[in-house]
Specification:
The complex is a heterodimer of chains A (309) and B (150). The termini of chain A are far apart. In chain A, 39% of the residues lie in helices and 19% in strands. Chain A is of the alpha/beta class. Chain A is globular. In chain A, strands 1, 2, 5, 6, 7, 8, 9, 10 and 11 form a nine-stranded mixed beta sheet that branches. A two-stranded antiparallel sheet of chain A has the order 3-4. Chain A has one domain: Rossmann fold (3-Layer(aba) Sandwich). By secondary structure, chain B is α+β, with helices and mostly antiparallel strands. A three-stranded antiparallel beta sheet of chain B has the order 3-4-5. The radius of gyration of chain B is 17 Å and the shape is globular. The chains are: A alpha/beta (309), B alpha+beta (150). The interface between A and B is large, with 51 and 50 residues. Strand 3 of chain A pairs parallel with strand 6 of chain B.
Chain lengths: 309, 150
Amino acid sequence: MSPRPGPGAGRGHSIRTYHEVADPGAEGVVAQIRDQARRLSDRLSRVGAVVAVASGKGGVGKSAVTANLAAVLASRGRAVGAADVDLHGPSLARMLGAPRAPLSVEEDGVQPARGTQDIRIMSMDLLLTSADAPVRWRGPDEGAFAWQGTLEAGAVREFLADTAWGDLDILLLDLPPGTDRLARILEILPRLDALLLVTTPSEAARAAVARSARLAREAEIRVTGLVANMTAWRCPGCGRETPLYEADGAGRLASDSGLARWAEIPFDPRLAAATDGGRPFAIVEPNSPASREFRGLADRLEAEIGAHA
Amino acid sequence: MKFLCVTCDAVMEYAERQLPGDGTMAVVYGCPTCAREIALLTNPMETRLVSGLGIQVGGRSVPDQPMELIRSALATGGDAFADRAPESVVPSAGSVSWSEDARLRLQSVPTFVRGMVKKIYGEYAAERGISEITPEIMDRARVDLGLEGM
């Protein structure tokens, strides 16, 4: 096997490598990328805590948890923002009762929509032609796999950096399912103050969320809590609770990952109906067991953030 | 990305960018020592990949507009943004008029992004002392400002 030719080999040229050329290049690409990062960092400097709500598994109720948590925090007088980072499955705007109306573009950025409890919201749902319109990007079909991922990462960055959030106590990010999405947002964000991992008791959810928990550990996110959703069904007549799943995936996940369960939210069909209707359940049914769990979740989150501030 | 003139061992300098409107892009670089010029040609996929980064080859000649990438790239966007009237944002742009042909062409821009595009063209014309925006001025602005896809 012949040795691999070095730089400049082949036609006798001795070509300097990229790093040997001190000139930053005419493109200014590095400067533009740095400028993007600076804009995001500047924007988030006015946010007390950036909190991501993730899972790794779809259908576990991330958005409902995000919406109800946001509503509880806002009802306590906190300035709350909610960014729906799930570009292809946006639901947060509807859950928080944000009207579909044109967003005002100011010098400082795009004004977020205002939902229930005056929560500031940015979601792809607000930008599409209609509620059932899919997200489609302009560009060639050929090689779409190559450019769409880059473009969507840029779109998420713009959501966070170009929305005129103003001064916020907490900005909640509702992430799409998939462990890779958590990794991407960690690359974009200059900082993440807390992560909530939402799971159900099912074994399938446990396995998926376990990957996100490991990623969070490797990324050294200091504040990470587990939210077990749809843990049981409570009979409205006798009050008896019946587990919805045979498995206790959330319990196993907690013991395996060392993460504490910050909330165990029982299934309540009224929760889905209220939240889908733009009326967060934790506000309209404050005495329900699920609402008590949301308040407990908010207590724990605020305490943990305060302790690590 | 850097381009090196192998003969002179000099970093080539950005000269100009052309956007013919078919999704492709041509970028010209010249050697400051021997004046040799080369053109980088990208296909639509490569052009989109670069613009998807939110950067402009050759550097930015106009500041970023809020959510510029989303507004220019989202094909299924509605009338989601209410731009302030461009005249109120850039005082000198208020004196710039639009020819009928330019107005018609602007109407073909999706409403989703039209306000932003109008503002950019207005600023471009005002900064150069151009009193009327015509389709030719729009073509020139697209090239000068690197308005891929606008």
